[in-house]
Amino acid sequence: MELPQIIILNGCSSSGKTSLAKALQEKLPQQYLNFSIDAVLYALPGSDLAAMQRGEPIQRRGHDFGQLVRAYHYALPGLLQAGCHLILDNAWCERAEKRELLTELAGYRIALIGVHCDLDELNRREQARGDRAIGMAAWEFERVHQELTYDFEIDTTGISPETIADMVFDEIHRDRIWHGAIDSLEHLNMLG
Ligand SMILES: Nc1ncnc2c1ncn2[C@@H]1O[C@H](COP(=O)(O)OP(=O)(O)OP(=O)(O)O)[C@@H](O)[C@H]1O
After folding, report:
1. Which residues are catalytic (predicted)?
2. Residue 176 has pLDDT above 80, yes or no
């Protein structure tokens, strides 16, 4: 049985994607690299990143958030062509964004996983961490899972990242055909 070459964790901000990705990386015997749009955003000038995290506009010439998202999407096939396995954590809020990344990754074996969390718990985590604009999780909550078909879904409310990583580990070792990403892309293309 072959493991997926790409594990996509999709859920809103503070749902626990990165914590889960890090715990899962440690459990997997196969080496997976964990990437998200943060890999591009953390390359921004520090004050631009800080403004973005506060939810404030960035004035610097050349700033284009859509371009940064595309840069993240276009970089991933290069990593895959080099043979890397990837765990991607995304908070996909726009249909075009979902379609563009799934198109870039088409042809690879992908486990598409929905990461859920109770809204009150999301708001609590967002307040506690202090490095995200307040209200971002609630805004994404309504959008992030729309128009997608997952291979399986998990809920991080009240469960530690390590326990959830055990659950995901078991799921990705089950013998199955990974079709969530294929079905989702077909549906997104049909919606136009
Ligand atoms: N299962 C969990 N139970 C309790 N707290 C958690 C859990 N997972 C993550 N957290 C906490 O929630 C906060 C956000 O976690 P994390 O960075 O993993 O979320 P994320 O979904 O990757 O967020 P973002 O998309 O904003 O980067 C952190 O403070 C983390 O410690």
Report:
1. 38
2. yes
β-strand partners of 116: 155
Q: Is the ipTM of this complex over 0.95?
A: yes
Element (H, E) at 6: strand 6-10
Residue of the nearest CA to atom 10 in ligand 1? 16
Q: What is the pLDDT of residues 102-137, one digit of tens each?
A: 999 999 999 999 999 999 999 999 999 988 889 999
Beta bridge partners of 66: none
Domains of the chain: 6-36+69-191 (3.40.50.300)
Ligand 1 pocket residue status of 156, Cβ below 6 Å: yes
Q: What are phi and psi of 62, to 5 degrees?
A: 95, -10
HSE value, Cβ hemisphere, 13 Å, CA-based, for 34: 14
CB atoms within 10 A of CB 122: 24
Residue by residue, what is the 3-state secondary structure of 82-142? CCCEEEEEECCCCHHHHHHHHHHCCCCCEEEEEEECCHHHHHHHHHHHCCCCCCHHHHHHC
Q: Are 103 and 95 in contact (CB under 8 A)?
A: no
Paired tokens of 110: 């992908």
Alpha carbon separation from 171 to 8, 9, 124, 178, 184 (Å, rounded)? 13, 13, 28, 11, 19
Nearest Cα to Cα of residue 155 among 147, 42, 146, 145: 145
